[in-house]
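It is time I had a proper look at our fold encoding. Can you supply me with one protein entry, sequence and fold together? It will help me judge whether the discrete encoding reads sensibly. Leave the record below and I will have a look:
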Amino acid sequence: MESTVARDDVKENKAWARGPLHRALVWLISTAGYLAIHAICCTVRFQVEGLEHYRGILESGRRIIYTFWHGRILLGTYYWRNHGIVVMTSRSREGDYIARFIRLFGYGAARGSSSRGSRRALVEMIRELRRNADVAFTIDGPRGPRYVAKPGAAWLAARTGHAVMPFHVSCRNKWVLSSWDRFQIPKPFTQALMLIGEPIYVSKEATEQDLDAAQRRIQESLDTLRRRGDSHWGEQPEP
């Protein structure tokens, strides 16, 4: 797998070479985005439930594999900022903006996605976990279907022995975009509920059936957190 990743890197470095104008635009747009999002999110009042699950993983000496839905990435990114978490981002030009944007919030970036370079990104995430860094997945990204968990987190937990930690964040007042993920932007000074689920562990000896079962547990946990979080504000959650 490592040799395959190395060959892929050579191809991708040639295919995705960036010029100085692109780098300047990345700096300008990502910085502007960071300032705008920080200005909004710093006014949000968070209520947190399940923090004992987060603390329990840290006390066990294991690292965390954060999993959450793509449409809630904005408030999730803000809440968990400056923890040194490594996230998977696309190797596309759009991914360049996202990678710099999240670094401004104190994240690392493993370049790849479920549709391009996923093997390389997963190998990088394994390395980061072995270096005692946490990692994160928008588990239905990058293109959906919405609220359908993909297998990367369960596979990574089985390879490393670390804990999958599902979480969900819902806010009272927000703008909802008409994108595939129904992307949410909180309105200034709103309230938000951060729900942290129980950790999910996968044995290093896991079979394919065990991995499927772990993925179902992740899906069920995130579905439960979403229904609970969204209904907290009087919404009717999607089925």
